Amino acid sequence: MFWRSRELMKINSKRALYKSMGFTNYDLERPLVAVANSWNTLVPGHFNLRQVAESVKAGIRQGGGTPVEFGFIAGCDGIANGHTGMHYILPTRDLIASDIEMMIQAHCLDAVVLLGSCDKIVPGMLMAAARLNLPAIVVPGGSMEGGVQFDGRASDMTSLKEAVGMVQRGQLTMDQLSELEDNVAPGCGSCSFLGTANSMCCVAEALGMTLTGSGTAPATSAARLRLAQESGRAIMKLVEKGITARQIITKNSLENAIKVGMAIGGSTNIVLHLLAIAYEAEVDISIEDFERLSRITPQIARIYPAGPANVPDFHRAGGVAAVMKEMSSLLNLEVPTVTGKSMGENIASARITDSNIIKPLDSPFNKEGGLAVLRGNLAPETAICKPAAIHPSMWTFTGKARVFESEEQAQEILMNGGIKEGDVMVIRYEGPKGGPGMREMAQIPKVLYGLGLSLKTAVITDGRFSGTNNGCFVGHISPEAAEGGPLAAVEDGDTITIDIPNRKLTLHVAEEEIKRRLGKWVRPKPKFTNGYLSLYSRLAESACRGAIIKHRLE
Questions:
Q1: pTM score of the predicted model
Q2: Could you tell me if 391 and 270 lie in one domain?
Q3: Mean pLDDT to the nearest integer, 420-435
Q4: pLDDT of res. 169
Q5: pLDDT mean over 250-257
Q6: In a domain, 292, yes or no
Q7: Predicted pLDDT of residue 2
Q8: Do both 66 and 103 map to the same domain?
Q9: Residue 403: φ, ψ to 5°
Q10: Is pLDDT at 13 greater than 70 in this prediction?
């Protein structure tokens, strides 16, 4: 046993404080297990977490522990998207990790069950687990079910963005858009596509940090509550055996997670987050590992935006366990997991039930992984794209630069009909430092789709994209423009080539001319001069290093 709280509970004043809230001697003789809950009524993916938490707490009590619950912040990318609010979303990831660390360390708690869903919350929780190195289990809130049929598939929140472009073209009426708004999100949960939220829940399962099936079970299903209760019992077994997060989050398990992310066509943002989790776990994983593993990992699952199926469909097709079972020969299945069993034991009975969604390893959708790492004179320190969501006809694209100094400027020109076939929209000063906060350019590719331009234009940025995006897009360009990267030298009319098969991002301008332009470059004034974003812009590392905030003395 290594109950940290046991020593604390020998002190009468500490016991008295707990007793003032109704805790008994019986409660205080047991391990104190944190239930870190991101429940709120702002985020659909977290709306059900009060109920999920009750099931977790019941499981902890059944397993012989005493649950103690606290909350932490959680923002909604969907609500924050496309305006100033998106500056704040990625920076919450590091706040979440630190918030959980501070609460658990301040109160000497023995273990933690981490409740959350959505884009930066699951990464922040995993970062905290790795940093604390206590027994820890992640319990996602679950995915949202799909909405009404639209454009050949069950609709979701991205359908509205596409529909805006269709209204612009006269393909839809405003009344039809309003009706769609009422029917794309039939209930709570993480939005039903394979965006960063559900990608990270799948990655958490592939890491071994959730129970089997927990990464994809729908939010409103009974399975979600059963998994929550089982997670409460499982955390007590980890406490008993002294199994901590860093025994599970290892180089082998991180490589498994990267491969699964590649195999399912996960969000580009998993690169940022897995690099940050590796940093917290003190594991040597770099962006080069993503490229190496992408080259040897076939894409065997298609979930929107790579195909019409959504995450509940993927769950019913066998989910993460079926994907891992199918790609067993590429994985390390001896790694331990929070179930107390190896990954191989966890997935032994898994099977594919819909081969339209999950393919056999010898007959994949693509021979390589769903993400690609590009380099070139426009991205000396790499850039990220998602060929899984890019039509093969657009894997190589050459066009003329249309340069924008912010997302807002790009949106205004796009919505006023200023983008034409052959344009490469260059959106800069949106990186970790320059944004600050590395905003998602999620709406722009969707509007291009609705306008019928997604197979005729491209978007590149030092910002990010949502896992929902399709079209031809490249993000995470490093070094970013605000650090004087080559992106700052691009001018309207320059020719740019995106070459995914050869992993190249090229600005067709002579090296001497690029140097001349950068020699005249003046660093722009900070967009935020006080508050957390001012601090974040000074501390955040490059996207190619996970946009982390370094805190370890090395």
A1: 0.95
A2: no
A3: 97
A4: 84
A5: 98
A6: yes
A7: 56
A8: yes
A9: -95, 135
A10: yes
Q: Taken in order 211, 123, 92, 135, is the CA torsion positive or negative?
A: positive
User: What is the reported pLDDT for 447?
Assistant: 86
Distance between alpha carbon 518 and the CA centroid of its chain, in Å? 33
Between the alpha carbon of residue 185 and those of residues 146, 159, 194, 357, 372, the distances in Å are 7, 10, 15, 22, 31
Structure tokens given for 111:
């273990």
CATH number of residue 118's parent domain: 3.40.50.2300
In this structure, are 341 and 419 located in the same domain?
no
Total count of domains within the chain: 2
Between CA 196 and CA 487 the distance in angstroms is: 25
| 299 and 399 housed in the same domain | no
Which pLDDT does position 341 carry in this prediction? 97
93 occurs within a structural domain: yes
Q: Work out the average pLDDT over 394-420.
A: 95
**Per-residue confidence (pLDDT) for residue 1, from 0 to 100:** 46
Q: Dihedral of CA 26/31/35/36: which sign?
A: positive
Closest CA relative to residue 315, chosen from 248, 221, 232: 221
Catalytic residues: 466
Report d(CA 441, CA 406) in Å as an integer.
10
- Asked if residue 225 is part of any domain, the answer here is yes
DSSP 360: -
CATH number of the domain encompassing residue 525? 3.50.30.80
Return the residue matching tokens 């066009």: 399
Q: What is the pLDDT of residues 278-319, one digit of tens each?
A: 999 999 999 999 999 999 999 999 999 889 999 999 999 999
**Residues above pLDDT 70, as percent of the chain:** 99
Q: What domain range includes position 484?
A: 372-545
34-57 core/surface letters (b: 16 or more CB in 10 A; e: else): bbbbbbbeebbbbbbbeebbbbbb
The answer to whether residue 73 is domain-embedded is: yes
What separation in angstroms does the CA of 86 have from each of 80, 119, 162, 459?
A: 5, 12, 20, 18
The pLDDT of 125-132, averaged and rounded, is: 98
Tell me how many degrees the CA angle 497-268-48 measures, rounded to the nearest 5: 150
Q: What is the mean pLDDT of residues 468-476?
A: 87
Same domain, 478 and 535: yes
Q: Name residue, tokens 């687990």.
A: 129
CB crowding 157-175: b at 16 or more within 10 Å, else e: bbbbbbbbbbebeeebeee
